Hints:
The structure holds 2 protein chains of 2 kinds. By secondary structure, chain A is an all-alpha fold. Chain A has helices at about 5-10, 25-50, 60, 65-90, 95-125, 135-165, 175-204. Chain A has one domain (about 40-50, about 60-205): Four Helix Bundle (Hemerythrin (Met), subunit A), CATH 1.20.120. In chain A, about 75% of the residues lie in helices and about 0% in strands. In chain A, about 45% of the residues are buried. Chain B contains 19 helices and no strands. The longest helix of chain B has about 35 residues, at about 65-100. Chain B is globular. Residues about 1-10 of chain B have low confidence and may be disordered. Chains A and B meet through helix 1, helix 2 and helix 6 of A and helix 6, helix 7, helix 8 and helix 19 of B.
Amino acid sequence: MSSATLAHDEAHEGHHTSLPIDNRKLAIWTFIGSECLFFATLISTFLIYKDNHPKGPGPKEIFEVGLVTAGTAVLLFSSFFVVMALNGAQEGNRKKMLGWLAATIFCGLFFLGMQVYEFNHFYHEGLGYTTNLFGTSFYTLTGFHGTHVAIGTLWLITVFKDAVKGNLPPAKALNLELAALYWHFVDVVWIIIFPVVYLMSLRS
Amino acid sequence: MATTALEHTHVAKRSTLVEWLTTVDHKKIGILYGASAFLFFLIGGIEALIIRAQLARPDSTLVSPEFYNQLFTMHGTTMIFLGVMPLSAMFFNFFIPLLIGARDVAFPRLNAMSLWVFMLGGLFMNASFLLNAAPNGGWFGYAPLSSRQYSPGLNMDFWVIGLQILGIASLAAGVNFFTTILNMRARGMTLMRMPMFVWTTLITQILVLLSFPAITVALIMLMADRTYGSSFFSIGGGGDPMLWQHLFWVFGHPEVYILILPAFGIISEILPVFSRKPLFGYSAMVFSSAFIAFLGFGVWSHHMFSTGMGPLADTFFSLATMLIAIPTGVKIFNWIGTLWGGSLQFKTPMLFALGFIAMFIIGGLSGVMHSVAPADLQQTDTYFVVAHFHYVLFGGSIFALTAGAYYWWPKMFGTMLSETIGKWHFWLMLAGFNLTFFPMHFAGLLGMPRRIYAYPAGLGFEMFNVMATAGAFLLAFSILVFMYNMWVSARRGVPAPADPWGGATLEWTIPSPPQEWNFTDEPVVAERDPVWGMKRAAGVRTLPEPTRSSGQGIHLPGPSWWPLVVSVGILIFFIGFMVKKSWAFPFGPITIAGFLLTAIGIFKWAYEAPDANAPKH
């Protein structure tokens, strides 16, 4: 869902809210709360099946920490970038907003590219989706995370387009903040996936 | 709506069908939820009647075993996801904004989307009957029975995909109502002044938001097993069927409270009004509801005692389950405390509310019996369990929802339901219900298994089954009486005043049925049971009948096609997964078309001004 969906969907603009938080922001936080359980279930499933690879490669044979560390770093930085972009939007500093927003989007695209490369690489190493349960649960978890990154990137691109057209004055900075909240969440999920999926699997 | 039509001629030009298809009015959405859920409820009821007809005699061959599997699967799935949940949603939609003094929900178009996604998902799942491929693996869809290997047909595809679609509706509504309740309350309505139905709705949404993701993921994995040939739940590929059971019940048990907490709320609204005294122990009621919801996440494995989890897990889940009896008991005693010393008025809503308390106690007690793991091993998969959950789901939820229907019908439609027919309805339903389900306790303890399509003579099951079948038809007759009552009310019902029952909450201060904008002046609340406060202050028993206003200057969101478009897109998207595919090409043309339609709908929606096509005031 794009920022503007929520932006326009408020029933009563200017209506007082019972809590000191905008409806859309509360809704995004609520949605994020629900999403936590979504990823918790996927991560639990991965943990149950990560050592289940009688056929085909397992995590030790296949994971390459170098590349994924780079992806993780880029995603982490993007969270910082989007905060700077939001700061620019709130100040009405167009240049700052557009610059940092573009950097954030670039990071998102880089991460997605990293994932496409990784999936392709793993496939050529002999790990298909149904080769073994380690592979199935790995692809399902990281695939859904990647889908979230893709949606977040698309959302940020939409906001960027609005910003270029001059439709993101400080009064509407919330439109960017909503996308940013979602973006932070997607990053946080990766902060859990990186050690739990990659680092722990390498040790055990 | 006569006023609306007069005031806004360009709105009147829109046809009625278009008006309903594009509505974002929470009251119209509520009525659509109610109408479609009642239809699904009737379908589920007919399925139950065929089941009972088949079981009336031993060794019966009325239906084939294969069709019987479809019947009990669709009966359970329908009654839970297409009956009780959306009937509760009808009351959430129509009454939450009214009870908190708001003009609509926080996100009216998202609300419309929830409705259409639910309706299309329900129609999709029932369309399976047309292909003679209705789901046939039980409402719990245990894997690997539900995997491609053991359920090769389209049957379980309909189930997996149907539930996935319905889950989207529930999650969207969960976000919407959570936000609405926390943020759209009238000035002065603090959390501890909210009507109890608002509280239980809020807690229900928390349960939806936290439990549905588990089944969403489980269904994704089952869909992957079925569509792409993975082996999450297939033993041959190293998968663990217990994972399905855990994920299903970690959703499934909170789901039980999703079904009953709204009922608790409705009862807590009705009892005070017809006892003429405030709800006893309001704070205890709030905290016990929250405690039930909290514990509800720690008891799921009591559905799995027979799977051999070991003594530690069995003990934990036994104790946690027994613990839930405490907040539930608190509620029951508080309801009795509300009645105590009140000046009781036995109107139809009150009768159903009292029936609820009695029936729910029976169901609750047999539930405590299940919590004892060794005893549960004897009861698992017998008719004793069927008796238990019908006492809480029908004796509990359906009795409460019917009480709510009688209580709120005048507000929704502006005419009264007949008290005489209503009382017939109540006594027939109470008799029919007990005749159907009480004998099942005995059949179950004698060892009659669930889900069997025939049983041999001479095991002592005959009499109990004849009683249950007779009761089921009596129960069905009582529903016909209810429908007759609705028809009479629609045809020549007595016009309802704004406040027919002497109510305590804000919906009774506005005309019946409410105007599009609900409250001409936004209400300000200074206490719990605000309308009783107003009456006390004015020294009257009934407030003067409110006048209908022109709604001058009130800003309302305009109708929109996009929620419906997005819903159709979501439906098409998921239908694409019914075709078995190679994982290398995971998305077929149907899925891609559905995705594009959804995406276009979301973008159009996002850039549609909220008051496009809105009536001007």
